[in-house]
Design brief:
Elements (H helix, E strand, L loop, with lengths): L1 E7 L3 H9 L15 H9 L9 E10 H7 L6 E4 L16 H4 L2 H24 L4 H4 L8 E9 H11 L6 H23 L33 H16 L1
Antiparallel strand pairs: 1-2, 2-4, 3-4
Bound molecules: flavin-adenine dinucleotide.
């Protein structure tokens, strides 16, 4: 997987402060620290102001399986390589670790991919099937490239879902890449610390000071909300007894 930031708001935190200042007629020039309103508004749930920051990413070498999961996040713009027009006779593919770690499974998988390439070529070259129809035999593992345009609010909300350990490894890796790139290329050079990327967390870490899980099948990283509440109830009952 390769991920690259094509473009980002020119002055993200400065713009957000200016944007959000309309609420209370705040004089942002008096702020000691730029981006104060991102923290204040996020903490109070005034998350629409996050829409004033945007990013454009280029993503390569991800599977069509990932594409199906990724594009379920409707609050974003996508441009995806067309299998109707781009020749797929040398298609590359993603191999999950559970397959590559097992030599026999890996052999079976690689053989299937090699055969599929040959069958695709036969359909297109020998039977003159248009590429847009021949692609129906391609596997979900086939790699693709995607351009992704998203505002910070949507990226945060999608990260809550896709950085969760219950999400699949490939899309988790993608959202971890977004976080790392924003940290390395936006946060550190412009603000010297994790100002924007700190919000790209799994949903269990939305409340950074008191993480808890609401999943039915928890991964165990943080306590379940029910467990925390039970401790509170026990404490309350002890005090009242
Ligand atoms: C671990 C995991 C497993 C999943 N498994 C499945 C599965 O088995 N099958 C399956 O089909 N999907 C599955 N999904 C996809 C999931 O149901 C969502 O479609 C996907 O995560 C996108 O989320 P979203 O709709 O919140 O995102 P977006 O489309 O980006 O929407 C963002 C937010 O905008 C608002 N919004 C958007 N559209 C509307 C609307 N029409 N009406 C009201 N509010 C709206 C909502 O607040 C929404 O949360 C899975 C997702 C995850 C993370």
């Amino acid at each position: 997987m390769k991920v690259r930031l094509i473009d980002v708001s020119q002055h993200p935190l400065e713009t957000l402060d200016e944007f959000a200042s309309a609420s209370y007629n705040t004089d942002v020039s008096k702020f000691k620290k730029v981006g104060k309103l991102l923290d204040v508004c996020t903490a109070s749930g005034h998350t629409s102001v996050q829409e004033s920051i945007w990013f454009v990413f280029h993503i390569e070498d991800v599977s069509r399986s990932l594409l199906a999961q990724f594009t379920r996040h409707r609050m974003a713009g996508y441009c995806v390589q067309s299998q109707r027009y781009v020749d797929q006779s040398k298609f590359q593919y993603i191999t999950p670790k559970t397959i590559s770690d097992n030599p026999e499974a890996n052999h079976l998988y690689a053989l299937h991919m090699a055969n599929t390439r040959e069958e695709y070529k036969t359909l297109v070259n020998d039977y003159r099937v248009p590429k847009e129809d021949a692609r129906y035999l391609l596997p979900e593992a086939t790699t693709t490239c995607i351009n992704y345009s998203v505002d910070l609010r949507s990226l945060i909300e999608a990260s809550h879902q896709r950085l969760c350990n219950r999400a699949q490894w490939e899309i988790r890796e993608l959202f971890n890449s977004f976080k790392k790139i924003i940290y390395m290329t936006v946060d550190i050079p412009r603000y010297g610390e994790a100002r924007i990327s700190k919000y790209l967390v799994p949903k269990c870490e939305t409340n950074l000071d008191c993480p808890f899980c609401t999943e039915h099948n928890s991964c165990g990283k943080h306590p379940k909300l029910k467990e925390i509440y039970q401790v509170y109830l026990n404490h309350k009952n002890d005090k009242e007894a």
